[in-house]
Amino acid sequence: MLLTTVVKIIVAVLSTIIVFVLQNYFLRQRPASRKQDSPASFFELNALASAQKLRNLCALCALPFAALFFVIALESQPFVLSVKGLLRDYILTLITNDSVKSDLRQVIDVMPEFLDPLFVLIATLALFAPVLNTPLALFRKVFIFAMGLEARADSLSYGAARAVLQKMRFEDAEAKLSAAFHSTNPMPEELVNSSEAAKLAYQLLHYSKDNTRAKGLELALASTLAKIGVGAVATSSAPTLAMVHIGAAIVFYIVLCVAYVLFAPLAAPWLQSDSTVIAFLQPIEWPIAGARNALALSVAQRSLSFVVPLASGMYLYASRRTQYLDNETWVQSFVVVFGVQFMSAFFVNLIFAALTVLKRSQGELQGVLISFDDVKIWADVFTPSLAPGAALLTWVMCEKMKFRLAAFALVCVVAGISFHLCQFTYECIAGSLRGYYWHQMVLGSFLTLAYYLAGLVAQDTLLPRPGSALVKGTEFRLVE
Prior knowledge:
The protein has 480 residues and is mainly α. 71% of the residues lie in helices and 2% in strands. It has 3 domains: 2-147, no CATH class; 151-235; 243-457, no CATH class. It contains 17 helices and 2 strands. It has a two-stranded antiparallel sheet. Helix 13 crosses helix 15. Mean pLDDT is 81; it is low at 467-474.
């Protein structure tokens, strides 16, 4: 039994690594959109950011999906078995030889249970890769748009071009670039009729792209300008990411969550006693020691559907305000980032709702059977998906508070209230007030506090200031 569990975990980890690598690779392969008003749109992402920064961003984006797959593979065997059955039947319909079909059915049916996640992953990729490409491409487009990576590159390249045009004519700049790099200046046909600044911005990005991968775009552009006799520097207030710090933060956050799963149920006898219930004048349901597995799964769900969208939303908002300060109000920036938060949270909550429905149908969970025809299921998917946005809005509104600890304490309170209202709404629709919303309120506040403490471990890289970009930071200025 122990050996089977260990092998199952190893297979789940292997499958998760495959998902992480594939998602990471896919995010980097953004095709050039070639927009006339955006010189950066003519380049791959690795020409617009340093290799390290791009690797960090793609890894952070791919990590939640890999973690979600790991939870499904490890904790949701009925779900994996159902998908395996569907894939098996679909594969068999593609085979016309009855003998081969019979042998293949036997091979799939006798496959060890711990190999099911790997089979599901490989079969899905082999059969539906073209179909999966569309939603993944849409997600990549939305993520890059919200992050403002292209806007940042456009702003920097236009700033560098304007700095050059302040010192020399466009024709002289082209001549110096050609001589410095021993090359004929490139010019896409889409930009032939564009402004001189747009043409020069494209050329500066082209000649800087190799250095960009190693040094970053600001230093690469500054180096290119220096080669044509223009001294200029760029300042940037965009938040930075360091994977070594983020890795430490993730480990610390997991330790805090494990501690919560271990110790929170110890309070159940006191909280569910008659005296406490009478004091609250309401029922109180609290996780008990025998339900730690369910509590761990709940913590995993809320971490993926609340903490991850909140963390990414904080970074995206601060980064976007840096790049779009002249073109968007803070409300517009918030709406864009909230849209990304809501979609990612909704997807995670929908997956976990499907797992709950399936487990109930398989008899693994107590309670009456449920299905997606029940309004309460959709309430349990929709309302918690709004919680990351509520926490982000609170964080943005607190940008002028002097003490950041007080600001984040308020975010913790709002998170707890959001979790409370979401569970209270679910129980009202279900027609049974169990009082589990008291625990959800504590859980929401705890997870937000755990994220804050993890951000401190990460040396503040996970806690950018919402007002850190109120001075536009992506423009070049001439220096003597």
